Amino acid sequence: MNPVPSILSIQDMSAVGRCSLTVFIPIVSALGCQAVPLPTAVFCNHLDYPHFAFNDETPHLLSFADCWEKNAITFNAIQSGFLASPEQVDIVLELIRRFGNRQHPVIVDPAMADDGHLYSIFDDTMVRAMRKLVSQADVIKPNYTEALFLLDRPYDDRLLSKDEIHALCRDLAALGPSNIVMSGLPAEHECLVTVYNKDKDILQFASTPLLPYKAHGTGDIFTAVLTGSVVKGDTLRTAAQKAASFTTKAMQFSYDALDGNLRDGLLIEALLSDLVPRQ
Predict the structure, then answer these.
(1) For the chain, domain boundaries
(2) Pick from 207, 145, 220, 136: nearest CA to 178
(3) Given this model, what pLDDT does residue 278 score?
(4) What span, in angstroms and rounded, lies between the C-alpha atoms of 3 and 32?
(5) CB 142 within 8 A of CB 150
(6) Residue 271 DSSP SS3
(7) CATH class of the domain whose range is 6-272
(8) What are the tens digits of pLDDT across the range 165-223?
(9) What element of type H or E holds 223?
(10) What distance in Å separates the CA atoms of residue 250 and residue 246, rounded to the nearest whole number?
(11) pTM of the predicted model as reported, rounded to 2 decimal places
(12) Residue 245 CB: number of other CB atoms within 10 A?
């Protein structure tokens, strides 16, 4: 096995504000993987700032893929995050067709909604496109809101029973993916993450203390740790717990260090050594 497996990461990049590719690259590197970035768009800063500028990279994505094929470049895994349009979803599907195989996982974060609402730039067209993409994934990592949009169900913020969560995961798996890692379930005291395997119909959980605040980029950090850990051989349950624990620790550390000002994202740089495999 390649001691430094490569992961093709297809998502946007913000120059300022820790999210997407700017957290994915250092995190999977710390875990012992090579990040191969394919930026879908390049932003001057993330969108929580009042002003931004960006370049849309859609016209260039398949030309990169063409060159990789000519150069016989391959990847040990494919991961996708925030995609700006249904057209970009179709491009990711093409990249999976060209570079995916049964031995290497495809991990999809259907980043399109939170807190009961789609992101403002999306409508039902994006939801339909994302259903096509998750059908081709080995692992999908929706938050609870995204899971409900994928299933065309209204948002419901009541606490769910274990049986209801199990049924929700089964329904998501019926869309095509083999494994479901779902975050953001309604909770009172702990942050629950579900880990579901379709073939064995097994539901497991990872959990951390529930913190009373949010920060930009936490989902991207979680997905980065999850992806790198799975590619390096961790079980999905172990990878999900590692991702949840690291994200929660980074939130608490950053909140304390920055007096609650989390606009620029979490201070992952100070904690990357926690992810380095011990010899």
Answers:
(1) 6-272
(2) 136
(3) 83
(4) 8
(5) yes
(6) coil
(7) alpha beta
(8) 999 999 999 999 999 999 999 998 899 999 999 999 999 999 999 999 999 999 999 99
(9) helix 218-231
(10) 6
(11) 0.97
(12) 16
